[in-house]
Amino acid sequence: MHERERPHHAGAGIFTLPEQDYSCMPSIISEYAAKRMGPHDFRQELKKLITAYNKHTGRVLFVYAADTNKSRVQGVNISLVQDDFYTIQDILREATFKNVDVYLETPGGSGEAAEEIARFLRGKFDTVDFVIAAESKSAGTILALSGDRIHMTSTGSLGPIDAQVRIGRSVVSAHDYIEWVEQKRKEAEDAGKLNPFDAVMVAQISPGELSGVVNSLEFAKDLVKDWLEKHKFKNWDKTETRKLEVTPEMRKSRAEAVANMLCDHTTWRTHGRSLKIADLKEVLQIVSIDSDKALADIVYRIRTIVRMIFDSSTIYKLYFMADFDMAKTYAPGPAAGLPIAPSPAKKGSGTVDVVEFNVKCPKCGKMHKVLGVMDITGADAAKHGVQLNPRVTKDEILMCDGAGCNFAIDLKPVKSQLELQSKRRIALSSSR
Q1: Is domain 2-159+274-329 classified as CATH 3.90.226?
Q2: Which tens digits make up the pLDDT trace of 29-42?
Q3: H or E element at residue 222
Q4: What is each CA distance from 77 to 132, 234, 327, 329, in whole angstroms?
């Protein structure tokens, strides 16, 4: 469910600190907590911070972030996917500015989606930089490597780009899989046979499957090599130590070396490895955000506010600019078979049709009974004696009133499902 530019809602309440580890930036957390901010306030603060970033850098910041903590929520896909490309393209296609910085926070996902986003950004803007203050792994790293520059904080991390492929019931590293197959081939060549177990395993590998694994690995490598050579290394004209003239062949060689390094699973041991500035600065010439104190304060605040938005609501993806905000949310309510029943309240000669369902707060676990009315407004329903939940705002956000909770639950996904199911308009707020 998408939402755009939601107005301030009443009853935002007090934000209480979630049970997460924010030890790296306690002063910022404490500062925002002391302001007694609600979920809407966090969103407005993010837009203010983006404005401050734009003013400080002279560039335009676009924020794309996914909530890794909601990866286990049923029906929620936090990965970088093709729909993200469509959304980003729609938001930025009419932009008139020439240079863009992308704040990127993602666990990874589709390499093809990363390619689509990169090609759009590179075709639309003169320069594209990436800002990494949290994790941008796998396909996120691939996307970041399409930029002219990468700016990182001490908390930011990239990751290996070795493709992950499904073999049977397991997901494995393409690099490891190819290496294992090659090892078994050599063993068979040297010894003239394989042990029975390996022989059974190898016999199950089809040429098409092996070719697909190889192609998956080479796809990431090819993208990174191309982008590094064209964009990241385009202004590399002198070698670091001997100050020699850099040739096109040297740029190509460096790009290939970096791509191979990031795909080498034996070096990083795990696909989820966090690669910090110290791991990458020499080969990628990463710009340290922490060296600019004023900019670092803005970026760390952005990272913190993004986390607060996620922790205080059902939002799992953000697309933000200084003058625009959009979010994807989920509803923790029932998935199907929501009851529709007539209310005894009179509406002319008939009744007011209502729908009633329960929604459990994902944060504190409190169960909320939500009432909606069909084909009339919430205000009209009140005239007939049907009172809707006062904690549902006019933008259909249910503010949990559990002890110290105040979690913002977006009811629009449930509403959409109900309207599709009933083929009727539904109002959940007395203000609509």
Answers
A1: yes
A2: 888 877 878 778 89
A3: helix 207-227
A4: 21, 35, 13, 11
